[in-house]
Specification:
about 500 residues, 4-stranded mixed β-sheet, 17 helices, 19 strands, disordered N terminus
C-alpha cells in the first residue's frame, strides 16, 4: 500500500494487519429475493394514493423555470402549485433508466447502479465530528480530509455521499471548491456535489471532467458525479434543489431524489400515510428530472422514519424505519428505479444502541433491495455527528453483510465427505488437510472483533470494541496513499480551483 503518511505504525507488534487483510474492493450483489412488507394490492393502494395526492393536492415548485417547464410538459400550474395528471406522471418516469454506470476518476472504481448490485457510501453532512481520542468538535478540513482518506482505504466504502463531515472552517463561498478538490485528489472513487446553487454544480461537474481527463461530450455521455435532492416535506421543492436538478440532469449526471418524511412531524403518523407522501414527492421529483432531460440517471430515495412524539426528535433504526425501507424498495422496483436507503441510528455515542439500530437499518435496506446505501459508515446522533470509530465498526458490518451475500459453495470438495470419513466419530477437524487448505480463506475475519477467549486475552483483547476501532482508525488513516494523477491533470485542476477562488466562488447570504 506504499509508505504510510505518518509513522504511528512503527514499533507495533507484527500481528495480523486487519487493514491489509480486509476483503477486496467490489460491489456486492443481492442474491436473495427482496422482502415484501405489504401485499401487491396494498402496494397498489399506496401507488394510487400517491397519484391522487399529486393530482388533487399537488406540490409546490418554487422556481419559475421549473414551473414553466412543467407547464409545457402538460402539468396544471397555479402559482407555485403544480398538479400532475396520473398518466403524465407515469409517462414521464418511464423514461428514467433502470440501470446505469457512474464513472470514477479510476475506471476500476466505476459503479454499477441498479439491478441487484449494491453500493455503500460513507456518512455525509454531519456538522460535528468525534473520535481519535478527541471529544465532539465542529467539522473542520483536517478531519474532513482524514475521513476522506479512510473512505479511500476502506474497501467496503465504494463512494462518498457528500462531505463526511462539514469542513466549516472553509468559507461557504469557496468550500465546495476546496472540498471537491480534496475529494478528487485524496480518493479515486466517484465524487459527490451538494446542490446548493447552480454554480456549485457547474464547478463540480467541470472538476470531475478535468480529473477524469475527458472532454465535454464524454462527461455528458458518462455520468460521473451525483447529488441528493431532498423535497422540503411536505409537498415542496425549493429553489436551490430545483436548480440542482436543472444543472445535473441537463448534464446527464445522477440525481438521488429523496423526500425526508418523518412520520408524526412532516408526514402522517402512520407508516402507510408517510409512504404515500414519500412516494408522491419522489415521483414528482423524478418526473421533473425527466422533463429536464429524458433518460437522465435518477435514483428513488427512501428516508421515511418516525419521530419521538415526546420530544419531536427524529428516531432512526426503529421498526417503523425498517418497515419503510422494505416498502420503499417495493415501490422503487414497481417503477423500475434504482433504490436508495440509509444506515442510520439515533445514538449519541459508539455504543450498543448505535450498533443495533444500524444493523436494523442496514438489514431493512438490504432486504428491501437497496442499490445505494447512503451514510453506510460513520453516522451518529441522528446525522449530526461523524465518528471515526463508528466508521470502522460500520465498515466491518458492511463487510459482514457482503460476505453473507456471497453464495455458499456446494461441490464435492466443500461437502467434505472424505474429511468426515478421515476424522470419524469423536475426532476434530483442526488438523485435517481439508481444513489446512482452507483455514485462511474460508471464513470472513472482521477487523474490529476480538476472537480470543477471556483466558488468553492480551492487552488488546481487553479493549472495548470502540477502543479497538480507534486504534484501527489510526491505522486506516496511516495506510492512505494519494491516488495517482497525471501531472498535467493535477495542474489543470489546481489552476481551476485557484481561479474560481480568486473570483470569489459563489455568492452567499452569510
Amino acid at each position: 500500500m506504499g509508505q504510510t503518511r505518518r509513522g504511528r505504525l512503527s514499533g507495533r507488534s507484527k500481528k495480523r494487519d486487519p487493514v491489509a487483510a480486509q476483503p477486496p474492493w467490489s460491489q456486492p450483489r443481492m442474491r436473495f429475493d427482496p422482502l415484501r412488507a405489504v401485499s401487491e394490492d396494498e402496494l397498489e393502494a399506496i401507488h394510487r394514493a400517491s397519484l391522487r395526492v399529486l393530482a388533487e393536492t399537488g406540490i409546490d415548485f418554487l422556481d419559475d423555470t421549473a414551473r414553466r417547464q412543467l407547464t409545457n410538459a402538460g402539468c396544471d400550474v397555479d402559482g407555485n402549485r403544480v398538479r400532475f395528471d396520473p398518466e403524465l406522471v407515469m409517462s414521464l418516469v418511464a423514461t428514467a433508466p433502470t440501470r446505469f454506470t457512474l464513472h470514477a476518476p479510476n475506471p476500476a472504481r466505476n459503479l454499477h447502479i441498479g439491478d441487484d448490485v449494491i453500493t455503500y457510501t460513507s456518512v455525509a453532512s454531519p456538522p460535528f465530528v468525534t473520535g481519535l481520542g478527541r471529544d465532539r468538535r465542529d467539522g473542520n478540513r483536517e478531519d474532513y480530509r482524514n475521513l476522506l482518506r479512510m473512505g479511500q482505504v476502506l474497501n467496503s466504502i465504494h463512494t462518498v455521499a457528500g462531505y463526511p463531515v462539514e469542513p466549516m472552517d472553509l468559507h461557504p463561498s469557496v468550500r465546495h471548491l476546496h472540498a471537491t478538490h480534496d475529494m478528487l485528489t485524496l480518493s479515486d472513487k466517484v465524487p459527490f456535489v451538494y446542490s446548493l446553487s447552480r454554480q456549485r454544480n457547474i464547478d463540480a461537474i467541470e472538476m470531475i471532467r478535468i480529473a477524469r481527463g475527458v472532454d465535454q461530450a464524454t462527461i455528458r455521455d458518462e455520468p460521473s458525479i451525483y447529488s441528493v435532492i431532498n423535497a422540503s416535506t411536505p409537498l415542496r421543492y425549493d429553489t436551490v434543489m430545483l436548480h440542482g436538478i436543472q444543472e445535473m440532469s441537463a448534464s446527464n449526471q445522477c440525481i438521488v431524489i429523496t423526500p425526508f418524511t418523518l412520520a408524526g412531524a412532516m408526514a402522517p403518523i402512520t407508516v402507510a400515510g408517510a409512504l404515500v407522501l414519500q412516494n408522491a414527492e419522489a415521483l414528482a421529483g423524478i418526473a421533473y428530472t425527466q422533463v429536464v432531460r429524458a433518460g437522465s440517471p435518477v435514483i428513488y430515495g427512501g428516508f421515511t422514519s418516525n419521530v419521538d412524539m415526546r420530544s419531536g426528535s427524529p428516531a432512526f433504526g426503529t421498526p417503523e424505519y425498517w418497515k419503510a425501507c422494505l416498502v420503499g424498495g417495493q415501490l422503487a422496483r414497481r417503477y423500475g428505479f434504482p433504490y436508495r436507503s440509509s444506515n442510520v441510528n439515533a445514538s449519541n455515542s459508539v455504543d450498543a444502541q448505535s450498533a443495533y439500530e444500524s444493523v436494523i437499518a442496514i438489514w431493512g435496506a438490504v432486504m428491501g433491495g437497496v442499490n445505494l446505501l447512503l451514510h453506510g459508515a460513520g453516522w451518529l446522533e441522528g446525522g449530526l455527528l461523524t465518528s471515526y470509530e463508528k466508521m470502522v465498526i460500520d465498515a466491518d458490518i458492511l463487510n459482514m453483510v457482503t460476505e453473507m451475500l456471497q453464495p455458499i459453495t456446494v461441490d464435492d470438495a466443500s461437502l467434505a465427505i472424505e474429511a468426515i470419513a478421515e476424522v470419524g466419530p469423536a475426532g476434530h477437524f483442526f488438523g485435517t488437510q481439508h481444513t489446512q487448505d482452507r483455514y485462511a480463506t474460508e471464513h470472513f475475519q472482521p477487523m474490529v472483533s476480538a476472537w480470543s477467549n477471556f483466558e488468553s486475552w492480551d492487552e488488546g483483547g481487553r479493549l472495548e470494541a470502540h477502543q479497538r476501532a480507534e486504534t484501527l482508525a489510526h491505522q486506516v488513516i496511516d495506510a492512505h496513499v494519494d491516488p495517482p494523477m497525471e501531472a498535467a491533470i493535477r495542474a489543470e485542476l489546481d489552476d481551476f480551483v485557484d481561479r474560481r477562488v480568486a473570483e470569489g466562488g459563489v455568492e452567499t447570504d452569510y
